[in-house]
Amino acid sequence: MSAFASPAWVAARDMDITRLSAIELSTAIRLRQVSCVEVMRAYLNRIERLNPVTNAIILQVPAEQALAEAAERDRDLERGYYRGWMHGFPQAIKDLADVEGMPTTRGSPILREAMAGSDSIFVARMRAAGAIFIGKTNVPEFGLGSHTYNTVFGTTLNPWDTTKSAGGSSGGAAAALALDLLPVADGSDMMGSLRNPAGWNNVIGFRPSLGRIPNNRGQVLHHLAVSGPMARNVPDLAMLLSTMAGRDARDPFSLTVDPGQFAGPIELDVRGKRVGWLGSYDDYLPMQDGVLETCERALQDFERLGCIVSPVKVDFDMDRLWHAWLTLRSWFLASRMQGLYANEATRALLKPEVIWELERGLALNAMEVAEAGDVRDDWYQAVRRLFESHDFLVLPTAQLFPFEASQAWPRQVGTKEMDTYHRWMEVVVGGTLSGCPIVAVPAGFSADGLPMGLQLMGPAQGDWQVLQLAAAYEKECGWTAGRHRPPLTG
Question: Which comes out higher in pLDDT, residue 11 or 240?
Answer without folding.
Answer: 240
